[in-house]
Every structure is written in C-alpha cells, then in structure tokens.
Amino acid sequence: MRKKKEARTRKQRPKEQFNKMMAIFREWLTLPKTINNKKNQAQLEIPTIQNALTLYRSYVTTCDYIATNSDRNIRDSFYWLVKEMNELISFEADYILLLSSLKTLLSLNERWDSVISRQKELLYRIEQVPSALDFYNKMTTIKAEHHRKKKEDLLIRQRLSKAYQALKNAMDYFEKYDQENSISAFGASILSIEKAREFWAEKLDEIHKMENSSADPNRIINEIEDLAKCIYDAPGLAKWVNDIEKRFNRLSYDHELLVNSYGKAVIQKEILDEFTTVINSVIPKLWSHGQKSQLDPYLRELESFLALFEPELEKEIAYSERHGLRKSNPTSEQDQQLDRLMELTRIFITAMDIRDPLMSTHSMTVARLAVATCKLMNWEKEEIQYLEIAAMLHDIGKIWIPESILTKKGKLTSEDIGKLRMHPIYGAQILQSSDLFEKMTPWIYHHQELWNGKGYPDGLKGEEIPIQSRIISICESFDAMLSGSATKLKLTIEQALDRMKYEAGTLFDPVIVEVFVSAVETHEMRYLKKYVEK
C-alpha cells in the first residue's frame, strides 16, 4: 500500500514541477507589461502631485507658522519619488525588460509598487495640510501669545520695580538734602516743603489706586517716573528760585529806596507788581507741583528782567549817592561845578560809546574800581568825584586814534603802537579846551606812566607820577587783563589779582596795589563776576 502511494507521488512530481515552471514563465512574460503600466501610472500622477505641491506652497505662505517636520517630510517624499523614478526609468533605458531575469523584473515591479504607494501617501498628506496647518497655527499662536504675555508681564514687573526704586531713591535724596541743609525749601521763603510733600503723597495715592484698578501698566510706570523726576528736580529748582527771589527782593528794596530817597524810578510800577505776583503766587505752586516745563519760562523771564534792571538801578543809586541828590539841588559852587563836569563827562562818554561801545564799558569799570580804591584810602568825597570823572575820561584821546588801529585783530606794527601811545596827549589836548577839566588834565596825560619809569609819554618814575594817574593805571591794567586782546590771553579775576601783586613795585605803586586788591576782594567781587560773564 505504501509502495503504491510512493509510486503515485513520483508520477505526480514532474507534473507539479512543470506547472510551477509554466507559472513562473507566464509571470516572466507578463511582468514587463505590468511594469510599463505601473510606470505610466506613476508618470501620469506626477503633474497631479506637482499641482498639489504648488497649492501647498501657496497656502503655506499665508500662514504665520510652518510645521517644520511635516514640511520636511513632504519635501523629502517628493525628492525620493523623483530620484526613484529617475533611477527606474534610467535602468529600463539601459536594459531590455524581456531579456531581464525574473528576479530583476520582480525587483522593478516591487519598486514601482513602492513609488505608486508613496505617491498616494504624498497626495494624502498634501490634502491634509490645510486643516493640519490651521490647527498647528492656532495652537502655535496661542502658545506664542502666552509666551509674549508672560514675557511682557515680567518686563512690566521689572520696570515697575525699577520705577519704584527710582522713586524711593529720589525721596531719600530729597530728605537727605533737606537734613544736610537744615533750611526750609533751601532758603526760598516763598516755597513750602510741606505743600510739596502733600502733593507728592497725593500723586502716590493716585498711582496706588491706578494699580488696584488694573490701569495700563505703562501709564502707571510713566506716572511713577514723572513723580521721581519731580522730586529729583525739586532741590535744584528751589536753589534757582531762591537765587531769583533774593535778587528780586533786593531789586525791589533798592528801587523803593531810589524812589523814596531820590525821587527817581527806573521800573514801571505795573511791571514790578506783575512780577511780584508771579514770584509770590505762580512760582510756589508750579514748584510744589513739580511742573518744571511751566516753571522754567517764568524763571528765565524773571532772570532777564533782573539782568536788565539790576545794573541800571545800581548805576542810578550809585550816581545819586555820589552826588547827594536826595530830592534837593546842590547849592554850593563846588557842587554846581561837579554837576557841570558830570554833564560834560556824559557827553564825552556818549561820544566814546558811539565810536566803540567796549571803550565806554571799559571806562565805567575803571572809574568804579578807582572809586572803590579811593574810599579805602579815606579820600575826601570831592576828590573821589574828581578822580571818578578823570577815570571815566582817561581814554578820551582814543577818539582821535584811527579806527583801523583800535579794531585791528592782528599784532600792531611799531607805527601803530606809536600812534596809539599818543592817546594820553590827545586826551589832555581835548580836555584843555575847558577850564572845568584843568585839575584833571595832568592825571589823564600821565595815566600810562609806570612805577619803574618805563611808561609814556614822559617816562615819569615812582612818586613823580600823580597819585591819581597811578590809581587809574592800576585799574585800567586790571580791566585789560580781564578783557584780553589779540596778543594777550584773558585772565580770570584771581589770576589778574595775582598778576597785579606780582607787578607791584615794578609797574605799579605797591602801596596802592595792596589797597586795590583789598577793595576788589571785599567790595567789587560780585560786580566783577557779572562783568566778566558779560
């Protein structure tokens, strides 16, 4: 039985092998056509994929965020398809499919199946892009907004902390400054620290209320910074107000003195009243409220007002005091002669001013310093008045000097210097035309003489020079040092005083220099500082 079964199996085996060989053969015959069909199918799908990719790229440009991984996968899939199809087509171009082995055909068939599958997968991915990108953009936007808000909140907290620290530093600075100075509002009687503190406390309460009401943080920070700046500015502004207040009070007092004692007024009452209201009412309120931008124009206007009238008022009072014009006319013959001399002097000064404004300013300064020196030397009032007139007219001879020499910016030639040195002679000749100036003519003639005898026009030495000329020489040289020239550097007041001390006994009378320095340091320093500034 078993033998019969084995015999039957042996008879069937060749038949099965034949059938298997035929199946393989038929598969080998059909595979080239199948492969060509799949190739054609894949190639026909390429334009569809390219159109889908174009739409995909267009859609991506409308999105704020791109899903990088998905975008990379789509790009890589497309590149793989292109590369794989190119390799397969290239292979088929090099080899005849009908002559290829079954193994090769099966491999090609499998690879084309993979291409078609990846094409379908890629198209599906591209179709899903809009919804996927919308979701991704929505989630990414929410995440980015959350991150931005978190970062912004942190920044706001840091700015708030910094602003509050600046406010604390400002308050500490103000309190420390006030303690160290130990004076209310830094000496300005019109200001009140208490009112300022009350205003600052009110502003701080308003800031706290804004925080509790969830107001705009940037607005809160700006309010804190403005308050800190207001407190920081308070001491400096108070000093400024204090200085102006003192000057204004002094001006008001001096003007009242001029009106009551000498019957003169240089400022209209309406203008003075207007500025009085500003300084007593407007400025204190603006200062305590920290309104610096509004306070500045008022203070600058007051400074301009003071700068305009202070020298004018000072000059009028000085003139009235020197000439004793207390609401009465001079009765003595000597006083009348001095008045006539002063009137003529003013005419000459006006002429000098027209020729060169700096010349008249120089002459007035020399006269002022000469008067201050004589007062310390205890001269009689009448002698001081004569010297003052001589000092004002000491350069009157320059009226006859060519303007080209007086205004020359470069170095003077020897010829120019010779002409310029004629001005004391010219001055004496001008004054000799009137007997009123007879007493003062020698003083003006010799005011360029030097203590060592090297001056001009006569080369007098030491006490040979009239004492009045010696005083004028010292005062004129000092003013020239402060003013400078094209060939000499301008000196400070301190440097000029040191130079005068150094030249005492050589160029100048040492005794008079000592008195002159004392007069400048004790009486004229404030005037000279303003003079140098101008």
What this model shows, in words?
With 534 residues, this protein is mostly helical. The protein folds into 3 domains: 15-155, no CATH class; 183-319, no CATH class; 337-533, Hypothetical protein af1432 (Orthogonal Bundle). The protein is 78% helix and 0% strand. It is built from 17 helices and no strands. Helix 2 runs antiparallel to helix 3 and helix 9 (357-376) crosses helix 17. The chain is elongated and about 180 Å long.
What is the fold named in CATH at topology level of the largest domain? Hypothetical protein af1432
CATH architecture of the largest domain: Orthogonal Bundle
Discrete helix count? 17
Average pLDDT figure:
81
Q: Roughly how much helix do the residues carry, as a percent range? A: over 70%
Radius of gyration: 53 Å
How is the biggest beta sheet arranged? Answer: none
Helix and strand content put the structural class at mainly alpha
Following the backbone from N to C, one meets helices and strands in this order, namely HHHHHHHHHHHHHHHHH
Please provide the count of β strands: 0
Number of domains: 3
CATH superfamily of the largest domain: Hypothetical protein af1432
* Morphology call: elongated
Stretches with pLDDT under 50, minimum 5 residues: 182-188, 327-331
CATH class type of the largest domain: Mainly Alpha
